[in-house]
Amino acid sequence: MIKNCIWAVIFSTIAALLQSVLLYRLTIYGAVPDISLGILVFSAYVNGTMSGQVTGFFSGLFYDFLSISPMGLYTFVRTVIGALGGLLRGLFFLDKVVLPMLLCASATIFKALLIFGLHFFFSGIVPVYPSLTTPVFWVELLLNTLLAPFLFGFLKLFKPLLMTEEKK
User: Fold this and answer.
1) Longest dimension (CA), the chain
2) pTM of whole model > 0.70?
3) pLDDT-based confidence at 165, cuts 50/70/90?
4) How many of the other CB atoms lie within 10 Å of CB of 121?
């Protein structure tokens, strides 16, 4: 499990760097696909709750260092998403298109709702997430959903690194 978490955090870190450096220049309505969230969802779904929490915690911690948000915001959000994604392990067959799209869309919506809820309680500290009425959220949701099958297919190429033995 430790090896899988380390590699998932490495992949997530590389994705976060790509998002903030390269994909930031290619925004659509100011939205960038959250590839590191997709990696977290994949890792949590194939490896379980504990792996999802650990991967979410460390990838969120790195994401906190990259962002201007308060320290711990993305650590908390990604840890919760990793735990919930891990709870779904083994409930559904991981197909190539539909389930990755549903998982990434659900994670994106849950991330937005969680950040909005935290902003509601800590309005002076937590930055507001683009609301459901702005095109930024909808474009990010669309990008995350459409990229999910390709991302999951790419990550399946690294089975020995990212998946536990019983799920190969």
Assistant:
1) 46
2) yes
3) low
4) 8
Distance CA 81, CA 79 (A): 5
Instruction: Look at residues 128, 125, 13 and name the one whose alpha carbon lies nearest to residue 70.
Output: 125
Helix, strand or coil, per DSSP, at residue 28: strand
CB-based contacts of 88: which residues, under 8 Å, 6+ apart? 44, 45, 103
**Under 8 Å between Cβ of 41 and 103:** yes
The predicted-structure confidence for 77-93, as pLDDT tens digits, reads as follows 999 999 999 998 878 77
Is the Cβ–Cβ distance between 118 and 125 less than 8 Å? no
pLDDT in tens, 43-62: 999 998 999 999 999 999 99
